[in-house]
Design brief:
20 strands, N-(1-d-carboxylethyl)-l-norvaline Dehydrogenase, domain 2, alpha/beta, seven-stranded mixed beta sheet, eight-stranded mixed beta sheet, 2-enoyl-CoA Hydratase, Chain A, domain 1, globular, single chain, binds acetoacetyl-coenzyme A, Rossmann fold
Length: about 700
C-alpha cells in the first residue's frame, strides 16, 4: 500500500488499483484531495501491474462536492477539471465506488469515471444551484449525455439529489452493490474479463443529438424548472449551460460552463447562499455549551393541543418515525385535530408526494388522548395551545406534577415570556421555548428559546430534537417575539403606516415580492388571518386603525373571503379592493394624516430598514449571539430569499451608513422614536463596520 498524501491511499490488489480518500467530515474535494487523486491515478495508470482502477472513499460518504470554503479564494492547481480529465483519459477502466452522498463535484468526478457503482442507500445529485452556482466541473455537459438534457435540466436547476435506485434507472449508476469498494472491484474484474469497451460519458452523443434535432421538450422542461426562480441568476445559468450541452461541441460547452461558474461564484447571490449554508450549520452550535453535554434520547413525544400548530408539530414527529400522542381537552377537539392531520396527509397523497402506505405508516405513529397520564412516560412535551400566559402556566404546572425527571418541557409560544412559563414549574432548568413556524410540518425553522434557567442539557436536547424532526434549530434569547416575530413587528407597524400615508397593499406587496419573498406582507396577513394580530393588539391595548377596522367588518383574510384583498369564491389569489383604499383614506383623514404618492424606494426602505434596525438591537441585547443566526431565522422562517442572504448579510451589502441616514429620516417623518437607529447600527455606520463581525466560535455542536 502506498500513502499518496495525508488523505489518499493507493493499494494494488489482483491487478486492480484501489484509490481511497479520507478527508472528514464529508470528503470534500479540497486541494489536498484533488492532488491525492491525481497523483494516485497517474501512478496507477503508469503501473503495468494495474489493469483497472477503483476510486472510493473512507468515512461517511463518497465525495460530497467541492470544498465550499475554497470558493472566492484563488484556485490552487490541480483543479477538479484536471483530475476528472486524467481519470477520463485513463486507458484502464476506472470505476467509482459511491456510497452516502455523491454531490456536486463528487458526482462530477464519478461522471469522469468510465463506470459507477453505488450502494442502495446512496444519493447522487448536482445541488450547486443551492449555493448560487452551477456544476463547474463538467456536470452540465456530462449529465445530459447520460440522462438526456430534459431530465438533466430538471435535476440541475432543481438541485435535489436522487436515490441510487432512480439513478440506476436513469443510467447514472451502472450497478447497485452491497458494499461500495468490494462491489466496484468485482465490477472492474467483470469489465476486464468481458472486455467491455471504455466509453467516456463525454462521447455519448445519442441523447444530445436527439434533443438537438427536437429541442421543444427541453425548452418546456427548462421553463418548468425555472418557474419559481425569476431574477435568480444560478438556475438560469444552469439551464443555459445544459442547453449548451446539445447546441455546442463538448469542449466549447465545458468552456462556457467554466465562464458561467466564475461569474456566479464571484457574485453576491452565490456569496449570500454560501453564507446561509454555513450560517445554518453554525446556528446549532451554542458558544457556552460545555464539552461533553449530551442530548437526552427522544423516543416518545407528547404534544399538548391538537390545533393547527399542535397537529403540524405532531406530524413532524410522525414523519421522523417518533411515536407521538396529542393531548386535547375533549374527544370532539381530538377527533377534529386528528382529522385535520389525516386530510393534510391526504392532500400529499393526492399530489403524489406521499404514498398511501407511507401516509398510513405516519398516521400509525400518532395517537390521541384526553388523559394526561400519558405525560408520565414521555421524553419530550411540546405545548401548543392558545397564546395565553395563564393557560400556559396552568399547563406547565400540571406537566411538572406528571412528567418523569429529565423530560424536556417545551412551549411553542411565539411571543410570550418563557421564564414566566418556566416559573410555573419546580424545574425551570427543564423548560425551553420551541417555536415552530406555520405550517409546522413544512417550515424548516425552529427557534429554540433559552430561558434564564434553561440547562445546557435541555438546550442540547431541544437542538437534537429539532434535528430529528428535520428542522433548522437556532438558539435565541427570551424576549417579546424572540428574533423573528420581534423583527416582523417592525415591518407590520410600517405596513399600517404606509396604508394611511397613501401606499396601496398591492404596491407594497409587489416591492417585497420583487426582492424575492414568496408573498408580500398584506397577502401574508390575509393568509395567516388578520384576527390573530387583532386579538393580540386588543389584549395589549395597541391600535392599528386600518387593520382593526377591517377586522371589525369581519374581514379576517382568506378564510372570510376578504381582508386587505378580496378572494373571489374561495380563490387564493388576492384581488385588490378599492374599499380598502377608501377605508385607509377615511382613517387617514380622521387622524389628520396627509396622503401622498409613496415611491418604490421609500416602500422598500420602510419594509426592510426598520427590521435591520431591530436586528441590531437584538444583537446588542444578546438575544441572538451571531448576526448570521438572524439571517437563518429569516431565511427559513419567513421566506427571506436565500440569494439575498438574510437581513444582516443584506445590510452589510447596503452599508450601515445608508441605513442609518434613512432611519433618521423616517424617525422624523413618522415621529416614531423606535425608528431611530440602534447604537450598534450607528457604531457600524461610523466605523464602516459590518454585521458579519458579530460571530462567535463554539466549542462543538450540541
Ligand atoms: N465543503 C466544505 N465543507 C462542507 C461541505 C463542502 N462541500 N459539505 C459539508 N461541509 C461541512 C459542513 O459545513 C459541516 O461542517 P461543521 O461540522 O464544521 O459545521 C460538516 O461538513 C458536516 O456537514 P453537515 O452538517 O451538513 O452534515 P450532514 O451529514 O447533515 O450532510 C451533506 C452532509 C449532505 C454532504 C451536506 O453537508 C451537504 O449538502 N453539503 C453540501 C453538498 C454540496 O453542495 N456539494 C456541492 C459543492 S459545490 C461543487 O461541488 C462545485 C463544483 O461543481 C465543483
Amino acid at each position: 500500500m502506498a500513502e499518496i498524501n495525508a488523505v489518499t491511499k493507493l493499494v494494488v490488489q489482483d491487478g486492480i488499483a484501489i484509490i481511497t480518500v479520507n478527508n472528514p467530515p464529508v470528503n470534500a474535494l479540497a486541494h489536498v484531495v484533488r492532488e491525492g487523486i491525481l497523483h494516485a491515478a497517474k501512478q496507477a495508470i503508469a503501473d503495468d501491474a494495474v489493469r483497472a482502477i477503483v476510486l472510493g472513499c473512507e468515512g461517511r460518504t463518497f465525495f460530497a462536492g467541492a470544498d465550499i470554503t475554497e470558493f472566492g479564494k484563488p484556485l490552487k492547481a490541480p483543479g477538479l477539471d484536471e483530475v476528472i480529465g486524467a481519470l477520463e483519459a485513463s486507458p484502464k477502466p476506472v470505476v467509482a465506488a459511491i456510497f452516502g452522498t455523491a454531490l456536486g463535484g463528487g458526482l462530477e468526478v464519478a461522471l469522469g469515471c468510465h463506470f459507477r457503482v453505488a450502494s442502495a442507500d446512496a444519493k447522487v445529485g448536482l445541488p450547486e444551484v443551492k449555493l448560487g452556482i452551477l456544476p463547474g466541473a463538467g456536470g452540465t455537459q456530462r449529465l445530459p449525455r447520460l440522462v438526456g438534457p430534459e431530465k438533466a435540466v430538471a435535476m440541475i436547476v432543481g438541485g435535489t439529489p436522487v436515490g441510487a435506485k432512480a439513478a440506476f434507472a436513469d443510467g447514472i449508476i451502472d450497478e447497485i452493490v452491497a458494499e461500495p469498494i468490494p462491489g466496484a472491484i468485482a465490477f472492474a474484474h467483470r469489465a476486464l474479463a468481458e472486455n467491455w469497451p471504455l466509453v467516456r460519458v463525454r462521447d455519448r452523443e445519442e441523447k444530445i443529438l436527439a434533443t438537438r434535432g427536437n429541442p421543444a421538450a427541453f425548452e418546456a422542461a427548462a421553463k418548468s424548472a425555472l418557474k419559481k426562480f425569476a431574477g435568480v441568476e444560478a438556475p438560469n445559468a444552469c439551464a443555459q449551460s445544459v442547453r449548451n450541452a446539445f447546441t455546442l461541441p463538448f469542449e466549447d460547452g465545458i468552456k462556457a460552463e467554466r465562464d458561467l461558474f466564475m461569474k456566479l461564484v464571484t457574485g453576491d447571490q452565490s456569496r449570500a447562499q454560501r453564507h446561509i449554508f454555513f450560517a445554518e450549520r453554525e446556528a446549532a452550535k451554542v458558544p457556552d455549551m460545555p464539552l461533553g453535554v449530551k442530548a437526552a434520547p427522544i423516543k416518545k413525544a407528547v404534544v399538548i393541543g391538537g390545533g393547527t400548530m399542535g397537529g403540524g408539530i405532531a406530524m413532524c414527529f410522525a414523519n421522523a418515525g417518533v411515536p407521538v400522542t396529542i393531548v386535547e381537552t375533549t374527544d370532539e377537539f381530538l377527533a377534529k385535530g386528528l382529522e385535520r392531520i389525516k386530510s393534510t396527509y391526504a392532500v400529499s397523497v393526492e399530489r403524489g408526494a406521499l404514498s398511501q402506505d407511507a401516509m398510513e405508516k405516519r398516521m400509525g405513529f400518532i395517537a390521541g388522548t384526553t388523559d394526561w397520564d400519558v405525560i408520565k412516560d414521555t421524553d419530550i412535551v411540546i405545548e401548543a395551545v392558545f397564546e395565553e400566559m395563564g393557560l400556559k402556566q396552568e399547563i406547565f404546572g400540571k406537566l411538572d406534577k406528571l412528567a418523569k425527571p429529565g423530560t424536556l418541557l417545551a412551549s411553542n409560544t411565539s411571543t410570550l415570556d418563557v421564564d414566566a412559563i418556566a416559573n410555573a414549574t419546580s424545574r425551570p432548568a427543564d423548560v425551553v421555548g420551541m417555536h415552530f413556524f406555520s405550517p409546522a410540518n413544512v417550515m424548516k425553522l425552529l427557534e429554540i428559546v433559552r430561558g434564564k434557567d434553561s440547562s445546557h442539557q435541555s438546550i442540547a436536547t431541544a437542538i437534537a430534537a429539532g434535528k430529528i424532526l428535520g428542522k433548522i434549530p437556532v438558539v435565541v434569547g427570551n424576549c417579546d417575539g424572540f428574533v423573528g416575530n420581534r423583527m416582523l413587528a417592525r415591518r407590520t407597524t410600517e405596513c399600517e403606516r404606509l396604508l394611511l400615508e397613501g401606499a396601496l397593499p398591492q404596491d407594497v406587496d409587489a416591492v417585497v415580492q420583487k426582492f424575492g419573498f414568496p408573498m408580500g406582507p398584506y397577502a401574508m396577513g390575509d393568509l395567516a388571518g388578520l384576527d390573530v394580530g387583532w386579538r393580540i393588539r386588543k389584549h395589549r391595548g395597541v391600535k392599528a386603525p386600518v387593520s382593526d377596522a377591517l377586522c371589525e367588518q369581519g374581514r379576517y383574510g382568506q378564510k372570510t373571503g376578504k381582508g386587505y384583498y378580496i378572494y373571489e369564491s374561495g380563490a387564493r389569489t388576492p384581488t385588490p379592493d378599492p374599499e380598502v383604499i377608501k377605508l385607509a383614506a377615511a382613517k387617514a383623514e380622521e387622524l389628520g394624516i396627509m396622503r401622498r404618492n409613496i415611491s418604490e424606494t421609500e416602500i422598500f426602505e420602510r419594509m426592510f430598514y426598520p427590521m435591520i434596525n431591530e436586528a441590531a438591537r437584538i444583537l446588542e441585547e444578546g438575544i441572538a449571539v451571531r448576526a448570521s443566526d438572524i439571517d437563518v431565522v429569516w431565511a427559513y422562517g419567513y421566506g427571506w430569499p436565500v440569494w439575498q442572504g438574510g437581513p444582516c448579510f443584506y445590510a452589510d451589502l447596503m452599508g450601515a451608513k445608508k441605513i442609518v441616514e434613512a432611519l433618521n429620516h423616517y424617525a422624523e417623518l413618522t415621529g416614531d422614536a423606535g425608528l431611530k437607529p440602534a447604537k450598534l447600527l450607528e457604531d457600524l455606520a461610523a466605523s464602516d463596520g459590518k454585521f458579519e463581525s458579530f460571530k462567535v466560535a463554539a466549542k462543538a455542536a450540541a
